[in-house]
Each structure stands twice: as C-alpha cells, then as structure tokens.
Model the fold of this input.
Amino acid sequence: MPAVSPIEFPPPFDSAEVIGPPTDPVDDRIEVGIAIVGGGPAGLACANKLMQLLEDEPELTEKLGEVPVAVIEKGKVAGAHLLSGANVDPSALTRLFPDLDPADWPSVYQEVTKDATYFLTSKKAFPLKPPPPNFRKEGTYTMSVSKMGRFLAEKAEEAGVYILAETAATKLLVEDRIVRGVRSGDRGRGKDGEELGNFEPGSDVVAKATVLAEGTIGHLTYAAYDYFGMREGSDPQAWELGVKEIWEVPKPLDRVIHTLGWPLRWGGKYKEAGGSFIYPMGEDKVCFGLVVGLDTTDATFSVHDELQRFKQHPFIAKIIEGGKRVGWGAKTIPSGGYWALPKRFSVPGLLVAGDAAGMVNIAELAGVHYAMHAGMFAAEAIVESLKKDIDSVNFESYDGMIRNSEIEKDLYKSRNMKQPLTKGLIKGGIIANALVATKGNFPPGHMKVENNAEPAVFIGNAAERYPKPDNEITFNKLDSVFLSGNATRDDAPNHVRIQTKVPREIAQTWVSMCPAQVYEIPDEQLENGATEVDVHVTASNCVQCGAITAKGGRLTLPEGGDGPLYQET
Done:
C-alpha cells in the first residue's frame, strides 16, 4: 500500500469564512476601546499593562469610551483552558507588578532550587551530570498557569477591564484590509446548526485596536495570517502535544525533573522525539507530563497512552507510590521556533502575541514569560499610537519591540534545536548539544522546519505495548476527559473540520493522536480490513488541545464556555 500523508487530506475549511466586515447595524454593535481575544498570559498581561498606562492618560482613556479594554475569553472563566508545565521565568511578572514578590502570587507553588535530568531505559534511570543547560530551571517558579489566569483576570477587573467569559471570538472583522474588531459566536444552536429555544446570536465587537492572544493554534490568528500574508517567507509552524497529570502524593518531591529516552522510539522511522517533565507542586502534589512532536509516523502512537506506560517505570512509580490522580489535561505547544515566527506581528488594526505567534523556546520548554512580555509590548505600542492619533491603525512599533527583545534573541539562539532530534536521540543529541554550547551557531545555517502533516504515516505496533487501564495507576481517555472538567453538551454543533472518508492510516493517526477520544473508526470497518474508512467525530469530548490542526484537520471554536475547566494545570 502506498504511503499517505495527512497533508494530502486537507480539512473542509477556508480562512475566508471567518473574515469579513461588521454585519450588525451600527447602533447594535458593541463598542470597546481595545479588544483582546484570549484570557491567557499574553492577553491578560496586555490588559493589565494597558490599564496601568491609561492611568497616566486620562484624555486617551476618555476617547476609548465606556469600556476602554475588553478581554474576550472562550472558557467558562479566565484560566479554564490554560495548561502548561509550568516553570515560569519571573521576569515578566516582576515587570508587570514590580511591587509583588513572585513567591506571593496565588498561582506559585515554590521557587525551583534543585533540578535533575535523567536518561531512561525501560527499567533504569541514569542521571545526566551536569544536566543539559536548557533544562536548568533554578530561579524559576513552579506555577499553575490556570490559577495564574484567574489571578491576572482579577487584577485586570480591579483595574477596570471588562472580561467577557464564555464568549468565543469566531470572526475577524475587516474593512478595507483594516481589522476593526471581532464577532462573538452564536449560542444555543443544535447539532445541525438549528436555533434552539435558548438561541442568542453573536455580536460585532468593534475596537480601535484588536490583540489576538488566542494561545496555541489560534483560530482567528491563523485566518489572519492567511488573509494578510503575515507568514510569507516563514517556515511552517510545528507543534508538540503534551499530556499532563497531577497527583496527590504522600512524599514531597524536592526538585524539578526532566527525562529523555524511554518510552519513545527516537529513530528517524518513527520520529518520536520528546521527553517528560516532573514538577513538585508544594508538599502534597506533583505534576508530570509527556511532550512529543506531532510529526510522528506510527498511526497507532498515542501520547496519552505512552504517559500511562511511562507511569509504570520504576523511577516514576516510586514518585507516585501511594498517590491519587486528581488532574489531567492536554495541549499543543508551538515548537517551530525562530524560523517559524511570522514575518509580521502586526497589520493595520491588529497585533498578535504569545503562543499564537509561536513565541515558545521549545529547547527550554519556556513560553509563559515570553507571552506576557509580548502582551505588555502590545499594550505599549497601542497606547503610543492611539495617543498620537485616536484613529491610528498603525502599530508597527510593536514589531520592532519584539525583534529587539529577549523573545526573538532567545528563540534565535535555539533556532535549529528541534530539527535535529528527528534524526534520532544519539545523532540528534550530539547536534543539539553543539547548538546549545555555541548558542545556535554550530552547525551553522537554517535547518528547515517540517510541517507536522507532511511525514507519511503507517499502521505500526505502538498500541501493542500500551497497558490496559487499571483505574489506579493507568486510565483510559474518557475517564481522563471527565477529570478535565469538560462539560460540552452532547448536542452542540461539531467544531472539528476533517475529511470523514480517508485511508485507514490517516483515520487511525487521528484516533490514536487525540487524547480525548474524539475520533472513531466503525468497528465493522476495522474488522473487515477496509483500506478506506469513515471517521466518526464526538466533538463533545474535545478538550481543544489543537492537535488535529497540526495533523491535517482544523479545529474551529465551539460555543463559548465549552471545553475543559482546568483548576490547577
């Protein structure tokens, strides 16, 4: 059977579908000064910084109207959809709130004073001494990013920001190639799009400036990239998928741990490049996760199930011994790095910040502080421009701020770090170590980033090694989705765009990859060995991790408020 690639089966989606002019009568539009899409670190840092700057600009504040700053957040509350490691560099926190000690933030568990990196075989854990420099985390803070989102939202509301939670921004409002705001999604539609008894139409939210801080694989961001050609000349973005669990444990963990090696097959045939993180969360909890690139080729490979297997390793089993799983989540992480950054971060009326722009240093698993710095730069650029001319749509100074900041400088140093790892752990590790030692200068040149959907996929044997869930240490996908707090109604419209009749290899890739059991091949087609199969979609299971967009489909937005309700991730 000829090899097939997910990129050969593009989703039935056109970016032009979600871009257009305002349609509400002028009197019915919601007018705000500055609209921020996304209540994560980038969006909320932007909102807080805007209010700090506007304190000294009463004339501009008055011109921005009754609602000078609004944050549009699709989750039930700010933080509901946030998931990360997370060891956070405190530089952005101290810049935003210089009078607050990071240790006093409600989202902080502890400062990192010890770390370690291990190479795993199937039974042993060998410490790497000294640890690779990119995994050294002393001086960072172990945090809950979902709690950080709630805290930043509280600070923003105290300052006067209007937060529209449970609101999906489903359309980018553009007139004469100038962004004028966003349209919120309809609420109360049935599975086939019909209006239910509680139907509420969306509204045009018009603004002087719009900031897209949607996080990884942003719905409107990627439509804007296509429409405005913001990525012309960039490598394709790439992603990794992280699946994470939180455990209550009887014995505290005293250090941050990263692992390489087992359980992944690092050879070029499988492209299973990644590793794990294990972080303490105070005295009684640990979080750990497995992060793997989404260019894997075995259609039966599953990050969620590899994580279940990972917990059976003696080294990991000892850490969680006597414990109880209390949290689970999954999310993509932009990993294309420097070469995959957009060529422009702003266009007339619009600025893009954070993970949506690929501002992640995958070599160090770091992105939260970059997102916050970018949000603050966006605030500064907006105020600077609107102060000169309230009708200005030129925010190009933001691009200069990003280009001259630690965001671009750090990503440039690790510009070729990810690409060698698909060549295997030994060869790729040697190249990666040389890059770290020379701050990216050796080997020289531009190693191209490959689209995750390009590698051909095949039916392999990864699934044969996955443990059967015992509901004590190992768990299935549906029970994990329940633990995420997901409460999407079963009769909601399908927000996942894929071709539903595809080669079995493609369908199996989606089934295995998805950590939330959204995709399914009918049993009779599995049993009769059909080479082309149907793909059934249970969209209500989706935790909006975004992996399908990386691997040949397109995740659009469900109704506002749907999806996970993360508490400590």
Notes: The chain has two domains: 30-100+146-183+202-234+342-413, 108-143+237-337+454-555. The longest strand covers residues 324-334.
